[in-house]
């Protein structure tokens, strides 16, 4: 499996700097789970962050700061990861067993749990959604969309940054064809209309940092249902 | 658009093209030449040894040395990102305690100490001040299996890579250094940076792309 569509350098930088909210960070983390080359880029961007940490103008800490921290050093050290075997991870396996979809990246399990027990919300014929990160909790949102073969996601534009990561199936939009692991990134003003183009449901993660703007009669009806 | 030509060896030209602000926080002291780079790398290796001394021997004097180097930087970083003095003090405690407790997770082959501490401070800030999580790919996810083979340059330590990167950042054109600085220091979204600088979002993104490529070219495939 080869990932063909990647986030921009600017998005990888923002992720490394801690500048993305939880929703968009989840999208990037999902893509990174499929993409060694972007994982490398994030490590490089974090090293830039390390340089920035070295170069910052220091601000003197309070005189008692060192004593305070020394007084608390007695806490048990955290063991090396490698020394403790990881506990078994039930979620991806059970998700794979109980549905026909390939396993989700583990980073999603804290948000999705077992996909087979998920309560998908009806949005429109052939389109269902599952909220993962709500705007109310932070700056941006993330949700899963499940789109039946041949269905088109409502035509929409948006004010901020929107990203989509394909988890199973595929879709095609103006930028090309997106399959598992691919990330589509759209700036504001981009209009796009993805269509699920394979014989199976397309499950994708979609995140925004600003409300979506739907245009046209049906989309206007759908906007409140999508809850963006 | 011409993204490359803003750098100039002549300060006068630089000033003429970019009206001088009160100060230029994005201009870094440039350390030129191999010797300067080597000394930065040596300093980095010494910091790495301090973390290893904590990991192996719970060495308190090593911790004190690390604290003296990093605590004022972590505080400066957090305050630059908008934390109040008291918040920054508390987070410094939190970050330095994490350094002590997680010292055995530090891998000098993978990152410089400053990079490791940067990521700890970033994550604690998001946790505590923003009350959000910052999802990361799970290292134990079977999807992550099959990492590419280490390249010829992978023998470089994190500190050596860092020294190269510092050199690359010091030589960025001012307009590229500026967007990098704002991304890391000011906790600004790219759309906010565009607004602050009065340039289109696309220009912010293209400057970041150029800056990132320059940095990547300098470190080669040391991260492969
Ligand atoms: Zn990628």
From TrEMBL, chain A:
Stored CDD domains:
cupin_ChrR
Q: Which residues form the Putative zinc-finger domain?
A: 12-39
Q: Where is this region: Disordered?
A: 76-102
Membrane-crossing ranges are 12-34
Name residues in a coiled coil: none
**Locate the ChrR-like cupin domain: which residues?**
113-208
Signal peptide positions are: none
Task: State the source organism's domain of life.
Answer: Bacteria
Keywords carried by this UniProt record: Membrane, Transmembrane, Transmembrane helix
Answer whether the UniProt record assigns the keyword Transmembrane helix to this protein.
Answer: yes
Name-wise, this protein is Putative transcriptional regulator
């Amino acid at each position: 499996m080869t990932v063909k569509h990647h986030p921009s350098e600017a998005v990888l930088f923002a992720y490394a700097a801690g500048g993305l909210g939880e929703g968009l960070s989840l999208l990037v983390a999902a893509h990174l789970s499929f993409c060694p080359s972007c994982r490398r880029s994030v490590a490089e961007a974090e090293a830039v962050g390390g340089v920035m940490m070295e170069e910052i103008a220091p601000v003197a800490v309070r005189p008692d700061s060192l004593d305070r921290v020394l007084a608390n050093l007695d806490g048990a050290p955290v063991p090396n990861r490698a020394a403790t075997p990881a506990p078994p991870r039930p979620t991806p396996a059970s998700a794979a067993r109980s549905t026909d979809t390939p396993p989700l990246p583990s980073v999603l399990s804290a948000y999705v749990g077992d996909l087979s027990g998920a309560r998908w919300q009806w949005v429109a014929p052939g389109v269902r959604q599952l909220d993962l990160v709500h705007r109310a909790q932070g700056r941006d949102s993330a949700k899963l969309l499940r789109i039946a073969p041949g269905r088109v996601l409502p035509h929409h534009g948006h004010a901020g940054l929107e990203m989509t990561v394909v988890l199973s199936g595929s879709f095609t939009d103006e930028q090309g064809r997106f399959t598992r692991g691919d990330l589509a990134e759209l700036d504001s003003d981009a209009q796009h209309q993805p269509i699920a183009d394979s014989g199976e449901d397309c499950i994708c993660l979609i995140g925004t940092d600003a409300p979506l703007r739907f245009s046209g009669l049906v989309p206007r009806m759908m906007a409140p249902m999508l809850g963006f | 658009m011409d993204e490359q030509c803003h750098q100039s060896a002549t300060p006068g030209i630089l000033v003429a093209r970019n009206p001088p602000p009160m100060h230029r926080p994005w201009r870094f002291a440039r350390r030129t030449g191999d010797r300067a780079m080597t000394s930065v790398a040596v300093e980095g290796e010494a910091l790495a040894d301090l973390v290893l001394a904590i990991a192996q021997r719970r060495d308190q004097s090593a911790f004190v040395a690390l604290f003296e180097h990093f605590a004022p930087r972590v505080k400066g970083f957090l305050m630059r990102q908008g934390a109040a003095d008291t918040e920054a003090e508390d987070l410094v405690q939190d970050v330095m305690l994490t350094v002590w407790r997680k010292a055995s997770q530090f891998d000098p082959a993978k990152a410089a100490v400053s990079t490791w501490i940067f990521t700890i401070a970033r994550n604690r800030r998001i946790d505590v001040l923003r009350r959000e999580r910052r999802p990361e790919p799970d290292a134990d996810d079977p999807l992550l299996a099959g990492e590419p083979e280490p390249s010829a340059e992978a023998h470089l330590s994190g500190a050596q890579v860092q020294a190269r990167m510092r050199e690359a950042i010091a030589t960025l054109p001012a307009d590229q250094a500026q967007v990098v600085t704002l991304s890391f220091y000011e906790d600004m979204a790219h759309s906010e940076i565009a607004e602050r600088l009065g340039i289109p979002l696309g220009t912010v993104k293209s400057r970041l792309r150029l800056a990132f490529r320059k940095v990547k070219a300098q470190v080669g495939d040391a991260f492969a």
